[in-house]
Structure formats: C-alpha cells, structure tokens
Amino acid sequence: MIGPEVEELIRMLARLPGLGPRSARRMALHLLTHRQEAMVPLAEALAAAAAAVRTCAICGNLDTTDPCAICANPARATGLLAVVEHIGDLWALERTGAFRGRYHVLGGTLSALDGVGPEDLHIPALVGRARPPEVGEVILALNATVDGQTTAHYIADRLAGSGVAVSRLAHGVPVGGEIDYLDDGTIMAALRARRPAGQVS
Amino acid sequence: MIGPEVEELIRMLARLPGLGPRSARRMALHLLTHRQEAMVPLAEALAAAAAAVRTCAICGNLDTTDPCAICANPARATGLLAVVEHIGDLWALERTGAFRGRYHVLGGTLSALDGVGPEDLHIPALVGRARPPEVGEVILALNATVDGQTTAHYIADRLAGSGVAVSRLAHGVPVGGEIDYLDDGTIMAALRARRPAGQVS
C-alpha cells in the first residue's frame, strides 16, 4: 500500500492471535497516524520486554528472573504443584490469588494426531519434580477438553505409585452460568459432584 | 504479572483499536513465547515503519515519500479529487483499483459537539486546491453517516460557484446485501436511485 515497511508491518500484525488482515490494517493505520504517542513507544516496549523476559528453568513460567518470582518466593508452598498447559493458564490462576503453591507449565497437551509426545511437554521434568517428600500433591489444572483430559489421565498414570497425591480441578456449573445454556456433560458432572445445600464452595 | 516491562507492554497493547485487556494479554503472551520469531521482528518493523513514513503535504496521505506516490504519479488524473475522511478510506478506494484520480484527506468530519470546525479538517486546503482549470471534479467520498453527510453538504456549499463539479458516492443496496436486513434509509435511497434493469452498475 504505502511502501514495503508498512506492507511488512501489516503482514506481521496479521499473524498475531485474534487479528486478521482487516484488523491488522486498521491497527497499522492507527499506529501510523499516532507515530510519536503510540508507535514508537510500542516498538520500544516490545524490544524492552523481549530483552528482559526469560523462561524459568524450574517451572517454565516467563519472568524477568530465572528462577521466576513464584519459584523463588519462600512464602509459596513448595509441596503443592499446579500443572497447567500454558503460561496463560498460570496467569489466570495467579489472578484469582487463591493458589499459593507453585507451578509446572507443560507447554501444551499430548496429541497423537499432531505427534506431540510426553517428552515434548516437560512431562519427564514433572515426573522428576513430583517426588515425596518435597512435593505432596499435584493438582492437574488442565483444560476440560479431550486433549487436556487425555493428558491429565496420562500424567496421573505416570505419577501413580510415586507417593504424591494427584487431584484435578472440579467440574461443575460456572459461577454466573445458566443451566439452560450448559452442555449435557457439565450438567451431569455438576449433578454427580453435588454438595449439601448451605455448604459454601 | 511478570515484571514492569510486561505490564507496560500489555497496557500499551490494550490501547490499540479492537483490543481490550484480555486480548492484549493473550497477544503479549503469544509474543513473549515467540520472542525471536515474532516479538523482536515486530518491534523492528514498527520502528522501521515509524521512521520511514511521513504525511503528504499535498493530500494528507501517508507514504515513505512526500509528495506521496499517488500525488507524484503522472498517470493519475490531476483534475479529479476524491475527498475522504480518513486515510483508511483512501486505502479502501485504492484497493478497488477503480479510482485513477487523486485524493484529499480531511482528517475527520465537522462536529459542533466535539468542536471540530472547517479549519481543523484541511477544508481550507481543499478549497485552495479545488479550482479550475487544474481540478474539474470533486467526488465527496465521505461516510454515509450524519457527520459525514453534514461535512459533505458544507464542502458542497463552499465549492458552489467555484466552477468545479461536486459529486458524491451513490447510495444503494451493497453488493451481496440482503434487502430484508437493510435499514429503511438505504432501501429508500436505492428506490429513488433505481436504474433500468439490464443496465450494469
């Protein structure tokens, strides 16, 4: 459109998650018309974050330090590991403020179709970490998808007999959810896991 | 979440058009997990485009040259000016390949409410450009919104008596559009501007 620099920028923006060619063009245009206030600072913020951030060798989290702030925090329970698929899941759990243990980021789920095996997923590292007495419980905080649950089953099998308790997140009606809009599987899981009325959580 | 660099990056991404806090977080995470393939090249592409691009002093287009490639192209008709609100509209017209004249970018629409007057909009520059014999026709390619049409009327008034023909884009049923889903105003405009059947365009 207006020179190879802008074509290249639009092409790169269009590859970001959630953006297509149209929204990438709109974003490029917004940036080009706000060069000093938005475009140059964004370029600098990207470069600064890219230079500062590294992967935690213990849990796979991203942070400006290695080990990450969570692994290095003596106030976090060392004996409780939450296993998540992606760093975004770790961020979501952290936002709740309800989990005070540590994490293990798998980097994805097992998938025979895509040729993703246990050694592609930091599962051997998890098996190495999850040993008593250092670790007492592993919470499988994986997505309630077929791939997530397949991976959860595989990990539970691998940890069977290790002496570490293995749990998973509860299934049920999401808070604020309407039963009429839920799928059958969720309703059945919520029925099976029903709790005495009046008891909270 | 993970250091001030990443907080700052998410804050800046969330201010881009079409992104909210959630999608900005997802985008930041994608970039952070693809630092060498996506994040560093994007930072460089942004900086390169910001440094290369300037505003055309004649028409208000963005390009790596001033005057822009359209204003400098001797094959484009000098006598025909399309007046657009924003550079995105100019890009949209260029994508059709159907317009071979030149442009004048207003930079917005008149708005009494927001205190936008003619001098804020490059309208004086348009009145200065749109003189015979250099310019024979001005096409008002403004949005079919209240503000766009108010601005179009104002410009048509200013150019009345200048000897320059003033036209506007046709209203009607969008190509591929379904009448059942159109607003009354569009249907009425399409009825009023009906053409003999069998005639194309």
Keywords:
Dna Topoisomerase Vi A Subunit, Chain: A, domain 2; 201 residues; homodimer; alpha/beta; Helicase, Ruva Protein, domain 3; two-stranded antiparallel ribbon; 4-stranded parallel beta sheet
Concise account of the structure shown:
The first copy, chain A, is an alpha/beta fold and 201 residues long. The first copy, chain A, has seven helices and six strands. In chain A, α1 crosses α2.
Explain what the structure shows.
The structure is a homodimer of 201-residue chains. The first copy, chain A, is of the alpha/beta class and 201 residues long. The first copy, chain A, is 41% helix and 10% strand. Chain A is built from seven helices and six strands; from the N terminus they run αααβββαβαβαβα. The first copy, chain A, has helices spanning 4-14, 21-33, 35-52, 87-96, 123-129, 146-159, 184-192; strands spanning 54-55, 62-63, 80-84, 102-105, 137-140, 165-168. Chain A has a four-stranded parallel β-sheet. A two-stranded antiparallel sheet of chain A has the order 1-2. In chain A, helix 1 packs across helix 2. The model of chain A has no long low-confidence stretch (mean pLDDT 91). The interface between A and B is large, with 51 and 51 residues.
